[in-house]
Amino acid sequence: MESIKKTLYLNKSKLGKIARYQCIYIVLIIALLAAVIVSVNSGTVDLSVSEIFKIIVLKAQEGSVESNVIWKIRLPRLIAAGVLGGALSVAGFLLQTFFRNPIAGPYVLGISSGAKMFVAFTMIVLMNYVNVLPPGVIMLAAFIGSLISMGFVILAARKVKDMAMLLVVGVMIGYICAAFTDLFVNFAQERDIANLTNWSMGSFSGIGWADIRLITIVVFISLAAVMMLSKPIGAYQLGEGYAKSMGINIRVFRILIVLFSSLLSATVTAFAGPIAFVGIAIPQVTKMLMNTSKPIIIIPTTFLTGAVFCVFCDLLARTMFAPIELSIGTVTAFFGAPFVIWLLLSRKK
Amino acid sequence: MYFQTDNLSVGYCGKALIKNINIGVEKGKILCLLGPNGSGKSTILKSISRHLKKIAGTVFIAKEDMNNLNSVEVAKRLSVVLTEKVAPELMTCEEVVATGRYPYTNHFGKLTDEDHRIIEESMAAVSVLDLMDNEFSHLSDGQKQRVLLARAICQQPEIIILDEPTSYLDIRHKIELLGILRKMAVNQKVTVILSLHEVDLAAKLADTIILVKDNSVYGSGCPEDVLSDTVIKKLYGIEAGSFNMLMGSVELPKTCQTEPKVFVFGGDGYGTRCYRALHKRGISFCTGVLYHNDVDYQVAMSLARQTIFEKSFRPISDVIYEQACKAMLNCKVIIDTGFDLDGVTNRNRQLLELAYNTNKPILSLRKQPQKTKANIQYFNDIGSMISCEKLMLESGEKISISMCS
């Protein structure tokens, strides 16, 4: 009798969890759709919903101004915001697990700044030879820059066990990278500077279909790979010692996590510049929403949440003070920073 | 031997700390490492569990060299409970225990019905089933330790390694945890290798004991043979105080070295509580006449200034009796803890009657008063006796305190 009661109770709690997950997913998808519709619909050129529908689905009025606005400007920007936002959140989740630090993220740990520094360096050097850098090169540069910063953070993490101290180190690494970036900019030609400052402000604008293709390929392959790693990530949450005792090859696992988190955040930095706080706040929000930190659940959900958040933030960046456009980092910081402060304060208890 | 190390050397960064360790344990038996802090117990355990790279030597499980096993095969045979603090975010106890299924589940860690059954069984074995949906990080240390043990059990190992599993536990949880280990060893033939700080518990739990001191194996064998008062004293470098292996009890160092002012009639185990109470107050005492096989004898030897005793199973000889008389007459206060008065030739009774006639103050804990005399005062408990005025004045506590401090 008792065993029956227990299984019933078990099923009930499990069902409750699944219902919760489903609700959250439905809400997120609705939010994403809403954000997409509003995004496509807002801007200087006014279009009705039916027109947009015709242009996107039926590819009507090809070659017209309306079609160009939608296909060449709004859609790529929207997709970029969604995919890169998601990538940033997943990178944040990986870093939080890796450093066992709930306030870690690619921006605060200086990883984005490292990417930015190396991209600036590459741009200034290579712009002497070519006019336009292929997206692949920029991404590679960002990836190398990310790995350099990550290397320093990992070295620091060996020495400092305090999670607040690690963040301080990360912020300092960020400043050092910024200083180097400024130094490079001093040596750059004026034409490059315009290019550079625009990019380094952080924006989803100016991303073309060729970029999108690269972005989606890299991000979705990384996402799939990270999903495949969700089992060892889950074990790693119990600590390295236990993870090892369950048969995980810690060295390989750590390298993979470093590579994928750097790749994801580098992709974002390469195409949209450094974006603050998404990487910290969104994985945390997702964990709270789902009330779990199970990687197999959190990884896809945090990707979706990140996508929704960034599409909304980009919408705000575009429309709040139109025709002046805010940098995406401004908007994400506006929401993200207070959340992180709250997170820090609530943990002190 | 089911588990065996062959000339194992362990240490950090390629430098051997402990060399040539040859320890072994049969299947379903418990091996316990004892030794002071920093002696290298953890280093040995970590090297066996492959958390540390061993420097040299071989470790065999069921005659198989562990080097030939891959990490998943090892995980299926050997699980651990570590000292490192675990603080997973938002993980329920069930999820923590479920990580024990790691070596058995598919690539995505999907738990089958069988896995769920094993998880529940493991949690039931350490009675944490009711904590299933609680968040792990909200538990008490004792509960956490039990959940982590459930996790280790859930891994269905042949060997469980535990590094100081009783560290944060209160006495009840210590007993429960070690009880679970004993049961697992007997019923499921799980081999247990652990390190403990509690010598007394180790002696009661383990089948084999390894003593580790100053980065070397100091001794090993059956605890009943290996552990003795002197071995423990040497192992831990105890200079003051004592550890009584037979009683499994610890006595604090003597606080006073003055000549005894109090004579205690002990025996039948009545004396021990009184000895400890006097000892804590720094009151020097002598006691007698005890038989060698009396429980009081063990404690008296550690705490009393002078213990007058007779060999077991024979009448008290004249020499001993005279010795006791002399000691008693030299004291200012006499305490009668209530030993057995029966027997025609009971010389302790004779000694007590002598005491009654000396007019020295006698503090008696005897339940049935023997005599009413001005110098005899009866007490119901040690607390009131120990703080009574006569004892204070006559035992010269003032003097002894000033002399000892």
From TrEMBL, chain A:
One of its GO terms (molecular function) is transmembrane transporter activity. Its main location: membrane. It comes from the Bacteria. Keywords: Cell membrane, Membrane, Transmembrane, Transmembrane helix, Transport. CDD domains: TM_ABC_iron-siderophores_like. This is Iron ABC transporter permease. The chain crosses the membrane at residues 21-40, 78-95, 107-130, 136-157, 164-187, 207-230, 251-277, 297-317, 324-345. Belongs to the binding-protein-dependent transport system permease family. FecCD subfamily. Signal peptide: none annotated. It holds the Pfam family FecCD. It is found in: Cell membrane. Gene3D superfamilies: ABC transporter involved in vitamin B12 uptake, BtuC. It is a multi-pass membrane protein. One of its GO terms (cellular component) is plasma membrane. It comes from Acetobacterium bakii. InterPro entries: ABC_BtuC-like, ABC_transptr_permease_BtuC.
TrEMBL record, chain B:
GO terms for cellular component: plasma membrane. It is found in: Cell membrane. Transmembrane segments: none annotated. The keyword Transport applies. This is Iron ABC transporter ATP-binding protein. Residues 3-239 form the ABC transporter domain. Coiled coil: none annotated. GO terms for biological process: iron ion transport. Its main location: membrane. One of its GO terms (molecular function) is ATP hydrolysis activity. It holds the Pfam family ABC_tran. InterPro entries: AAA+_ATPase, ABC_transporter-like_ATP-bd, P-loop_NTPase, Siderophore_ABC-ATPase.
